[in-house]
Amino acid sequence: MTGKLSAGDEAAPRHATLLGIGSYRASRVIPNAEIVDAIDSSDEWIQQRSGIKTRRWAAPDETVQSMAVGASRKAIEHAGIDIAQIDAIVVATVSHMFQTPAVATAIAHELGTDRPAAFDISAACAGFCHGVALASDMIRGGSAKHVLVIGVERLSDLTDVGDRGTAFIFADGAGAAVVGPSDEPGIGPVVWGSDGEQFDLIRQKEDWRDVLEQERPTMPHLVMQGNAVFRWAAFEMAKVAQQTLDKTGLKVDDLDVFVPHQANMRIIDAMARSMKLPEHVRIARDIADQGNSSAASIPLALDRMIAEGEAKSGDLALLIAFGAGLAYAAQVVRVP
Ligand code: UT7
User: Fold this and answer.
1) Final residue of a structural domain among 182, 214, 242
2) Does residue 275 form part of some domain?
3) Is the residue at 119 inside a domain?
4) Buried-most residue among 42, 257, 280, 329 (CB within 10 A)?
């Protein structure tokens, strides 16, 4: 026991912030009318129960990798840094169809970065906020200076178009953020957790090995006990939102923007009501024409609010993401 471990980078920055954001919407616009026959539903039912009018599904050439690269290029441009400055890439996804290697490594290669740390994380719809929390801690811990966080999904591959409970919900797209050092805190403390007792409320239907044993193998689609998830999200996530504000030392009046995971318009409304969000807080409602794109939903929604002038640079935005697991994560960030 003679050696002494160095604690790492003593000069690591105290704070991290979002430097830039970018997104990529899958190109096919699928209206409710196009999917209702297969699930014996109606445009009216889908709009009333979920708020969704259309959803974005990927064209054949829009892969998890290509959509992620598209969003990342915009985020890096927005951040005003050189691609070579990215020294870690964290990709949140559940729809990259290879168990290994991580799609983050292929994205790094296509972006032309200089050998960054690159890995995927699996936290479903909560993945992007998990990635932002990791990036913030990596920067403040001195293990990376600029981290590219990507949320990307091609859920149309995992959706059974004949399943009434999910066919109308899921969607495709990508969002990315560059997280870097800052003089002031730009990312507040995360409140995150999971409720493993309910781990199977949203899940892949079967194990891949069981699929191969079937006479006519089919993709192991996503299945969801929607109503149970709905009740959990509407009640528990408003509490998590309040805990996040408390931990950050903010009141609801201090917020400018609220960007919840785009799961269901009724969940968004229920959370806004129970949090007693004041009128001035602008609320992301991207779900109406994007659908639920899981890990991509929050950066897609925030990027749209910036583009449409609803979120301005320096605004305080509460992000809250939740989904399969049941995993959740929330933090307040300064809009880049
Ligand atoms: O992103 C990850 C997190 N995911 C979520 O947060 C999703 C949360 N869940 C939801 O968004 C909602 O549960 C859904 C939108 C999926 C469903 O809405 P719901 O109000 O929970 O409907 P339900 O499943 O309780 O079904 C209500 C009724 C049932 O009929 P009865 O028993 O009342 O006669 C269903 O059979 O609606 C019927 N139904 C449908 N009718 C037309 C179920 N699915 C459909 C359908 N079209 N697609």
Assistant:
1) 182
2) yes
3) yes
4) 329
Which of the four pLDDT bands, split at 50, 70 and 90, describes residue 6?
confident
Distance CA 326, CA 312 (A): 32
109 is catalytic: no
Per the annotation, the verdict on 261 as an active-site residue is yes
Residues 171 and 101 in one domain: yes
Q: What is the pTM of this model?
A: 0.97
Task: Say if 217 falls within a structural domain.
Answer: yes
**Is residue 246 domain-shared with residue 148, that is, in the same domain?**
no
Ligand 1 atom at minimal distance to the Cα of residue 39:
48
What separation in angstroms does the CA of 265 have from each of 56, 102, 161, 236, 271? 16, 32, 21, 16, 10
Counts for the chain of helices (H) and strands (E), in that order:
9, 14
Model pLDDT for residues 242-276, shown as the tens digit of each residue: 999 999 999 999 999 999 999 999 999 999 999 99
Identify which of 73, 63, 120, 129 has the alpha carbon closest to the alpha carbon of residue 92: 120
Q: What CATH number has the domain bearing residue 102? A: 3.40.47.10
Tokens of 82: 């050189």
Number of domains in the chain: 2
Q: Is 227 a catalytic site residue?
A: no
Among 144, 161, 182, identify where a domain stops.
182
Tens digits of per-residue pLDDT, 263-312?
A: 999 999 999 999 999 999 999 999 999 999 999 999 999 999 999 999 99
Residue 20's beta-bridge partner residues? 178
Q: Are 261 and 321 in contact (CB under 8 A)?
A: yes
3-state secondary structure 1-24: CCCCCCCCCCCCCCEEEEEEEEEE
**Domain range for 322:** 191-334
Residue type, 287: I
